[in-house]
Amino acid sequence: MISVFITGALCALCLVLSAILLSGHGAGMIAGYNTAAEKEKAKFDEKKLCRAAGTFMLFVTIAMAALCCAGYFVETGKANENMMAIPIIIFIILLVAGIVILNIYSTKKCKK
């Protein structure tokens, strides 16, 4: 049951981070952007990049919440433990697809 609480806490943290990013703030939390030179940063629209990262973070939050619910059903005995592999595989596929889409969007649409 501790895994459900840990996953729930991570969901809450991701929700807070996505709210910060969706508001257009928190560019320092975006990997690569915070360490880029000012010349490179000037090529991107910071608010649009923050909103794109925030949308992805919200997507991750929702997917992680679904994974947390699946874990809860397994922990309470309402679902078979072998069935947990399906949500995990779906989560990984969605995560990889989201990263690819975010990368394409940020390089194409977030540039000035």
What does this protein look like?
The chain has about 110 residues and is mostly helical. It is about 70% helix and about 0% strand. It has 4 helices and no strands. α1 packs antiparallel against α3 and α3 runs antiparallel to α4. The protein is elongated and about 55 Å long. The relative contact order is 0.15. The model has no long low-confidence stretch (mean pLDDT about 90).
Rounded Rg: 17 Å
Q: Count every beta strand, where a strand is a DSSP E run of 2 or more residues.
A: 0
Please outline the major beta sheet.
Answer: none
| Span of the ends, CA to CA | 47 Å
Structural class: mainly alpha
Strand/helix succession: HHHH
Low-confidence stretches: none
Report the sheet-strand fraction.
under 5%
Rough shape?
elongated
Compute the number of helices. Answer: 4
Approximate helicity band: over 70%
Mean pLDDT: 91
What tags apply to this protein structure?
single chain; 112 residues; mainly alpha
